[in-house]
Design brief:
- Helix content is 36%, strand content 27%.
- With 401 residues, it is an alpha/beta fold.
- It folds into two domains: 282 residues, Zn peptidases (Aminopeptidase); 112 residues, 2-Layer Sandwich (Alpha-Beta Plaits), CATH 3.30.70.
- The strands form four sheets. An eight-stranded mixed beta sheet has the order 1-2-4-3-5-16-6-15. The chain has a four-stranded antiparallel beta sheet with strand order 10-12-8-13, with helices on one face.
- α3 packs across α9 and α7 packs across α9.
- It is elongated and about 80 Å long.
- 51% of the residues are buried.
- Bound molecules: zinc ion (2 copies).
């Protein structure tokens, strides 16, 4: 494997400039979920140029590529990159700034797509060196719209049947050159809640003749804070956030209703159910106690991202060889969510954080910030890591243990 690792490093070096150019092209031309037409056309053109067989238009704008080793037989694994941007107006002044007003790659998915194309470059050049297949999944719509589920439904993990799945995420909480991993729950489950507090409006000077939904909504917001502090086991984690309150227009009119919007985060399925149940109970009973009525709607989001222990240990070994053992860290659980979780429900695998923070170069802004940008030297680390991961997976077959 020593020799192969050197060959991979040479190929990564060879493709590095191309990966940065692709990343910048994607960054300048961001597209929202299920609208990644230009991005997937570029992905498809690059795969064609490399001679990688692939299928376009999977889950609308996704692309599934397959690189098969020359030797017959062998296993298969999936590597995934997400391609969508966010509805954010970029505030960076860089040459590769977004050319689309109000749209921005503020999460690093431009980098993920470029990295996976770099991996395609490396692995096609080494087809005579491995047995088995690597599925390259270019996924649409990670940011909330749920591209993973339809991509899987349309065959992402089959033909060849993938026995494991891996993905990485550029991560501005970790320094460039480091790789973060975590066995078990890596990212949280997310649910959205909407509460309509319906009262009876009237004159602001005569509250006794009304059922004031503003006061009831305020009590509900405060009471919801007791879910994490009073209902959750102190060793468990969860978040209940009310992120929007809409109600009323005039200073002297008590409105008919108030709308609350918020989000729930959790790791364990039991906790997820508890949070949903308590939001409902508290909203309904507090509203009733104040003469109002609460209608609670729960919108189920992504499940938590659970890394398989065997696969995580395997990925850690690869990370240590690529980045150096001092550069591999135990990442903290993240309360954000990720639809790679759907892949990990089907097959074992791991979701890995690729350090991309660099204060000296000014890459310090968090994901989803209008100033987000990342250290592009992390891209080659990502290409080398995923390439080695695939090659060693097919050689060692850790899934079979
Ligand atoms: Zn994001
Ligand atoms: Zn992301």
């Amino acid at each position: 494997m020593r020799k192969l690792a050197e060959e991979v490093r040479d190929l990564v070096h060879e493709v590095a400039g191309r990966v940065v150019a692709l990343r910048r092209e994607f960054h300048s031309h961001p597209e929202l979920g299920f609208q990644e037409h230009e991005t997937s056309a570029r992905v498809s053109a690059t795969l064609s140029e490399l001679g990688v067989e692939h299928r376009n238009g999977v889950a609308r704008t996704g692309v599934l590529g397959t690189i098969r080793g020359v030797a017959p037989g062998g296993a298969a694994l999936l590597l995934r990159a997400d391609m969508d941007c966010l509805p954010i107006r970029e505030e960076n002044e860089v040459p590769y700034r977004s050319l689309r007003d109000g749209l921005m790659h503020a999460c690093g998915h431009d980098g993920h797509t470029a990295i996976l194309l770099g991996v395609a470059h490396v692995l096609t050049r080494l087809r005579d060196r491995f047995r088995g297949s690597v599925r390259l999944a270019f996924q649409p719509a990670e940011e909330g719209l749920g591209g993973a589920e339809p991509l899987i439904a349309e065959g992402a993990l089959s033909d060849p049947d993938c026995e494991a799945a891996f993905a990485l995420h550029l991560w501005n909480s970790l320094p460039t050159g480091t790789i973060g991993l975590r066995e078990g729950a890596a990212m949280a489950a997310v649910d959205e809640f909407r509460i309509k507090v319906a009262g009876r409006g009237g004159h602001g000077a005569e509250p006794m003749a009304t059922a004031d939904p503003i006061v009831a909504a305020a009590q509900i917001v405060t009471a919801l804070q007791t879910i994490v502090s009073r209902n959750l086991d102190a060793t468990d984690s969860g978040v209940v956030t009310v992120a929007a309150i809409h109600g009323g227009k005039a200073y002297n009119v008590i409105p008919e209703s108030v709308d609350l919007l918020g989000t729930l985060r959790s790791f364990r399925p039991e906790t997820r159910l508890l949070l949903r149940q308590r939001v409902r109970e508290i909203a309904e009973s507090v509203a009733r106690g104040m003469g109002c009525r609460a209608e609670v709607e729960m919108i189920e989001g992504y499940p938590s991202t659970i890394n398989d222990p065997t696969m995580t240990r395997f990925a850690r070994k690869v990370a240590e060889d690529v980045a150096g053992s001092g550069k591999v860290v135990d990442s903290r659980p993240v309360m954000g969510s990720e639809d790679f979780s759907y892949f990990l429900r089907k097959v074992p695998g791991a979701f890995v954080f690729l350090g991309s923070n660099n204060p000296e170069k000014g890459f310090v802004h968090p994901h989803h910030s209008p100033r987000f940008d990342f250290d592009e030297s992390s891209l080659t680390v990502g290409v080398e890591f995923l390439s080695m991961l695939a090659l060693r997976f097919l050689e060692e077959r850790p899934a079979r243990r």
